[in-house]
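Sharing a chain and its predicted structure for anyone who wants a worked example. Both blocks are below, sequence first, tokens second.
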Amino acid sequence: MNTKKTLSAEARRKTILSVVLAVICVIYVLPAVAVVINSFKLNTFVKTDTFALPTGEMYAGFDNFIKGMTFGNYPFAKSVLYSVVITVLSTALILLCTSMAAWYIARVNSFFCKVIYFLCVFSMVVPFQMVMFTLSKTANTVRLFGFWGPLLNTPWTIPIIYLGFGAGLAIFMFVGFVKSIPLEIEEAAAIDGCGPLRTYFSVVVPMLKPTMVSVGILEIMWVWNDFLLPYLVLDKNLYRTIPIHIQYLKGSYGTVDLGATMALILLSIIPVIVFYLTCQKHIIKGVAAGAVKG
């Protein structure tokens, strides 16, 4: 009898928890649904009938998409190109540099390495707003190679800044996973004549693949959607990422074409959503491998 009561109470608890989580899921999905609905709606109806379906006189077809991509004198395709360049370069740089640093920190395990590790972890709790003004000034004055070379305010050099902000999480996850790799594997590679670089690329990198995939996915989603850092650092007349391009969909006196804005937002989030849904299982595996095993 007591067993039946326990099972009944457990079933009720699971039912309540499922209902609560379903409500939370709906709340999170609702803004995305609103973006999809309003991207096919005339601008005059976006404010008055926000959650109404785009039917009848409200339906705008693909006019909002065409208007958003042709607004102003800056091509939308150029913004897409800069977003892709910045995202790919930043993610590649973060994965390469932080995985190397994490491997060194985990294997050397000296006092200096511990200090570097804790500083990287501490950087995750520092709000970007605390450093954004000094960062903007630094990007406009510091050159890539000291006294010569390009400044850090171009799409090809801003990945250096993203490396600094993305290193904390990446090193935290990589160090946890490297500690779970048996040291004997690397010692065997050293006996066979492998140097540090060959050991890293031939032995360590293949074993780091789960964490590399998860870190790469998280960094891609962050850099692709980031607005504030490119807006502060890049020259908006020359370089605009997709979020900056959307922000410039303004008319005179601050008026905004909400229909075109929603259309471009939809175009910008579709690649990220598809990418995330395709790779979400790798995120779970990588987080578990880097945070639990370490």
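Comments welcome. The beta strands are 143-145, 148-151.
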